[in-house]
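From the shared-data thread, chain only:
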Amino acid sequence: ELKMDHKENSSARNPRKEAGWLSLLVFNWVNSLMIKGFRSELKHEDLYATPEESSSQDLHQHFNKYWMAEKDRMKKGRKPRLWFAFFRCIKKVLVLHGILFGLEFCLLISQSILVGYLSQFFCTKKELEEQLTALKNSSSVNNSDDLIASKQEEIDDETRDAYLYAVGMILVVLCVTFIHAWAFYLSQNIGMQMRVVATAAIYDKILKLSHTVIGRLSIGHIVNLASNDVQRFDMAFLFIQEIWVVPVFLPVFTYLMWVELGPSCLVATAMILLLSPIQFISIRLYTKWRLKSARVTDKRVRVMNEIISGMR
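Structure, as tokens:
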């Protein structure tokens, strides 16, 4: 079992554990660290203690449990799934991240609808005011007072609805701001946890290798793998929810555009669907070239390590 140092700095306890819901919502618990960093240079003892769910020891223990379960699949003639072991480590927070991401898209749709209603109000109000002015200037007095009062009441109702739309837009924007901040925070947190798990797994694997196998590896290759390659997790989880968001919300966007624009909206939807295979091919090509680039980078690092070792 992999043993790691997990020293708790009692003088810099993580205030997130004791923060209230409002402090968590607006990230007020990190303000003290920001103020201290603004006034003076931060030191190691100023940093907050690592949360338990982000500690390398706990994360690696969880990963080992799920990886052992995957390795049991080999007894049945099936290959172990590394990605599934990674997924099981973060499934709860990943589901929460997906819920926030989907809720953000729903609110953005609501915002666009409210903007449409509010824009329509100004056109409707202008027409009603023109009709009211025409009634006031009309020479006929039969039922003119009743028509004027009715038209004025209609204008007041439209104005009241416009205020409600404006208030709704403000509330939606505030909710989107908080939800987007938390979704971004969770994506960075998930990426960091996966990076820690991958680095700990590499470290654990190296400790279990024989001296013959280790002799074939260079320090530069291991350092490049643990410092450069695992950084891709940070970027991956920023966009991973797009996998299900686009297929789910594309019909919704198409319907809303159909209501406003009619059949012409299908041109935009068709362009998106036609670009999907092109993007898929581009991703496959990028992955192929990225693997070649990684091999060249590993070779370069290995040569530089040999040169430095020879100079020493």
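The longest helix spans residues 144-208.
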